[in-house]
Write a structure and sequence with these properties.
Elements: E1 4-9, H1 13-23, E2 29-35, H2 39-49, E3 53-55, H3 58-63, E4 69-72, H4 79-88, E5 92-95, H5 103-116, E6 120-122, H6 130-141, E7 147-157, H7 174-190, E8 196-203, E9 210-220, E10 223-230, E11 232-243, E12 246-250, E13 262-268, E14 271-277, H8 282-295, H9 304-323, E15 327-328
Parallel strand pairs: 1-2, 1-4, 2-3, 4-5, 5-6, 7-10
Antiparallel strand pairs: 7-11, 8-9, 8-15, 9-10, 11-12, 12-13, 13-14
């Protein structure tokens, strides 16, 4: 098949840092057009990163007939608006997480794209890495028995007031930025949806954003997940799962390098081992999987229903932090 031409909203540092280089080796995706509200910036980015076309507005990008699909790494509060405008132009959308500011926005985005006949997927790239595929296989095979608990820690230190992650009205804060990973990975390993949650949040007095968040997800039948995420702490990330017959740990679960093997630590009654998985880049794998689904007119590799369910848990966590009580997760 021919490469699908991708348009990118904005001159995102995330795209240039983590996505641009891996896509050079893609056989399915061609970074074709980039748009910025600053035309000079768009031109510079196009020249530096090999885009054939630079647009001085997002409107011009979605109107470009050469664009097959768009990648939306805009700030969280702009996700829904530009998902819908891309869909209006018949463009498929791979949107950075979270899909919206709440489950209602995620549902609206999903329904809108369905009506327009375009594919929509939330960009949880970690699930495409071989280390997570292997972790999933180990859980399915029962190597650690029935998973009864998981724990996630994901932190970084960013106190830049101009950074979108520290701007409350842009949807900044730890819960939406990285808490979404903690919730997603817990649901992925538990193979279930939590029934209720409890949450504590600490906010920055200047930014107003949540900078330290801890939560408990209760899946029922004695099964639970805990997590802590923070944006003003030393950088750490780890996911652990504990079962009736063993344990499993993903060493670098989310920002995994693309040039070294993944490492999954497994312990059970037989012994302990470190499972090394293939060297690959999770971003290229994700973009290729999405492009293939578009080309073959198949469902998204990660269904949009998963994004809606994840947002429902995040909504409940926010409600719990406000009420100080357990809050039920609204079924989607």
């Amino acid at each position: 098949m021919r490469k699908l031409k991708m348009g990118v909203f904005g001159c995102s540092s995330h795209y240039f840092k983590r996505v641009a280089v891996p896509l050079r080796s893609s056989s399915l995706v061609e970074p074709y057009a980039i748009a910025s509200r600053d035309g000079v910036r768009a031109q510079a980015a196009a020249k530096d990163w090999g885009f054939a076309v630079a647009h001085s507005s997002y409107e011009a990008l979605v109107a470009d007939p050469g664009v097959d699909f768009v990648y939306n790494p805009l700030p969280n509060h702009l996700h829904l608006e530009w998902i819908k405008k891309a869909a209006d132009a018949g463009k498929h959308v791979l949107c950075e997480k979270p899909l919206g500011l709440d489950a209602a926005q995620a549902r609206e985005a999903a329904a809108y794209c369905a009506r327009k006949g375009v594919l929509l997927m939330e960009a949880f790239m970690y699930r495409f890495h071989p280390q997570w595929k292997r972790a999933s296989e180990l859980v399915e095979a029962g190597e650690i028995g029935r998973v009864m608990a998981t724990h996630c820690v994901f932190t970084y230190n960013n106190k830049d007031p101009a950074n979108i992650r520290n701007i409350a009205e842009f949807g900044g804060g730890a819960l939406l930025d990285i808490g979404c990973y903690a919730v997603s990975s817990a649901r992925f390993l538990m193979r279930a949806e939590p029934e209720r949650v409890q949450c504590l949040i600490e906010r920055d007095r200047t930014f107003g954003t949540d900078v330290l968040v801890s939560g408990i997800l209760d899946f029922g039948a004695g099964r639970r997940s805990t997590f802590t995420v923070g944006t003003q702490l030393f950088s750490v990330q780890r996911v652990d799962a504990f079962g009736t017959g063993g344990s499993l740990s993903v060493e670098v679960p989310f920002n995994m390098y693309g040039d070294v093997p993944g490492r999954v630590h497994v312990a059970n009654d037989v012994g302990r081992r470190i499972v090394e998985t293939a060297i690959d880049d999770q971003y290229r794998l994700q973009f290729d999987a999405f492009a293939l689904a578009v080309a073959e007119k198949k469902p998204a590799p990660t269904p949009v229903s998963d994004a809606i369910a994840n947002m429902a848990v995040l909504d409940a966590l926010k409600a719990s932090a406000a009420s100080g009580n357990w809050e039920a997760v609204v079924k989607q």
